[in-house]
Amino acid sequence: MVGDRGMITSAHIQQLHELGGLGWVTALRSVQIRALTAPDGPVQQSLFDDTNLFEIVHANHPGERLIACRNPALADKRAYKRGELLAATETSLTLIVAAVDAGRLKKAGRIGVRVGKVISRYNMNKHFILTIEDGQFAFARDTASIDAEAALDGIYIIRTSIPADAMEASTQTTPSGDAAAYSFTGLLDHLATLTRNRNRMHITGQDDTITFDFIAAPTPIQRRAFDLIDQPIPNKTQVARNTLNSHHKRPDQAS
What we know:
This protein is α+β, with helices and mostly antiparallel strands.
């Protein structure tokens, strides 16, 4: 079973252990990664200087393989995005500070409501230290929180119960070996190429238009998919005649 870290949780993994006979592949959550990247943890940033992929074991995950990887491009992207959100949050909070200093906002409750809207909008509440009192509002960046999050930028840790020798890369095919196997998402993408193309044609000298709906020819994989769900493939060309509005009549037919 393969799923993301929200789909296959630790509770689900325990159930799979009890069930037996079924391997799984998922990933660690941010809080679990943070524990492994602590100063005394097995995953240190310096390890990624030599390789962007390595395997570790840890007592918190007995009988499991943990494969740590780092994507530098994704790390840069997240750092840039976080910087933008922090700056946008500061800009909005500065306007609230000005309103409080000018006396337009006095009660702590009203100040808190305004601040809460800004924090919720940019989802940066964990990265700011806020001080709210009657007639007073101040804020500052929580550098410790920002640095802790930045340390995880681009890092993923795959978690699996499957031995390395059972995960050798190979080209997946159907049991008969005569066609490539598709993931569910890949199959949906392929089925999306089975399109209906609509063409409208105006007949010279007449007030009608003729609409033709052409269905693209299905591929063998698409035919097989429809066979498996016992549904017919829409393959007939449909023709419809639509009458134009009366204001489109020819001049000699106008009243």
